[in-house]
Amino acid sequence: MEPVAAPLAVEPTARRSPPDPAAPTRGRRPSRLLGIRSTIPATWRIALGLVGVAVVFAIWIWGAGGGSATIPTPLASWKAFTSMVSDGSFQTDLWASAQRVAIGYAISMAIGVALGIAIGSFASVEAFFEPQIGFLRYIPAPALLPLFLLLLGFDETPKIWLIVVGTVFYNVLMIADVARNVPREMLNASYTLGAGRRTILRRVILPHSLPGIIDVARINLAAAWSMLVVAELLGAKAGLAYTINLSQRFRAVDVMFALLIVFGVIGIVSDVLLRRLRWLVSPWARS
Amino acid sequence: MVKISPTGTLVDEKLAVRGVTKVFTGRKADVTALDDVDLHVDSGELVCLLGASGCGKSTLLSIIGGLEVATAGEVYVDDERVVGPGADRGMVFQAYSLFPWQTVTQNIAFGLEVAGWDKARRRARVDELLGIMGLRDFADALPKELSGGMRQRVAIARALAPEPDVLLLDEPFGALDAQTKRHMQDFLLSLWQRTGTTILMVTHDIEEAIYLSQRIYVLAARPGRVAAEVHVPFGSTRGPAVKRDPRFLDLRDELGDLLG
Q1: Domains by residue range for chain B, with CATH
Q2: Which of A34, A50, A263, B41 pairs as cysteine with B15 (C-beta 3.0–4.6 A)?
Q3: Residue B238 pLDDT > 90, yes or no?
């Protein structure tokens, strides 16, 4: 038969023909849900999340044994929560605790940004602070609380300073790393555009570091709440951890459970808010 | 410094590098990255520093830009000794130098704000550069929304904005794909023809050096030194056709031999 020129367009029917089931296959078939680093369908992601939550609740209900065990049922915990809300004690506790964390963590972040940017930008500042911070960050902050109580009294001050001390070294070191991540080319370009050090710090290093600083704030916020718990366990007039501690004396496990869940909810809410903040203030760094 | 060229005309020496030596102190031994380098760029010239990787060409450009300090020797721009970086020597890097949180307009205006230009002058200058660079439609875009070639055009515009005496380009097209690179070379050539800016460019691409420059300094490695100074025989109004000129091909072979 005479060879003919290949047709330019393939017949549409030929393209629609199904694969030959008898043809041998090659390669590993990708797994639908368990491919390493592969994405899964959104419906599956949501469904698996819901199942995960349901499993936790099932274990909880099973452990509570219909109210006969020490562990309260979810419903009992919810009732404990609503009664705390209706008598206003929850609001008092939440306000007392949130205020401590807010003030302490704000101080910690302020020190973290100032010192972290300076350490990450100037080798001389780094050389000066490196030995102290390297040493101090290994002292467990809760070990300092008795000293703080002795020096600062029993009111809010030692609690706030425990939160500061328990988080500031992580903030400083992590923000220093964020500042170090400003590309050298960006700094060099700024210098050759006539910028001085102050301009570069304010207009290049700070904006470039902003999303990273918010990430650091988000990650270390959990440590601030841990420090709050330690501080309130050693004495307070109000506070979420103080009330949890107090519940032990009255065997009010339902109150404990309610407040433990409140801690988790606070964590999730602040995480979402800080992610949202990062997204809003640094649209260029949205992934 | 005004001097008399070989053809008898008066030329203005814009940039002079005199006896620049750079020694990096290593743990085991000192490494001489640059050894007694002399070169000059005249006003309005486009000169390439051509060399294989590791010959110290980028280090030399950094020293000219004032970003690194020479162990010995000096750099002069208009007979003034360079002691540090400044907007008079605008620099363009291979990548990662644009401010990603700023729009194209804001990036280009950065040097003007630093220099204290008032808003009306800034706007006029940025608008002029957006026009020259063909970036008008992307004035409010963020760098991440641009292609690699466009980003480099923004970087060049930003460096040109404060009207530098010399434009220093450090392998500006090294991270681009072949086709974009060709477009950008033509773009740089026409930019230079239109603006008459004095340009010193570092490259390891022989054809790029011949195509763009009037003179080429060939740097040899270990230690980095000027191995040859080559005059390119094409006028300033050249176009892509010179790439098929026999002299272009001869020069390409000659430079290939020099680079080893």
Answers
A1: 13-85+168-260 (3.40.50.300), 89-163 (no CATH)
A2: B41
A3: no
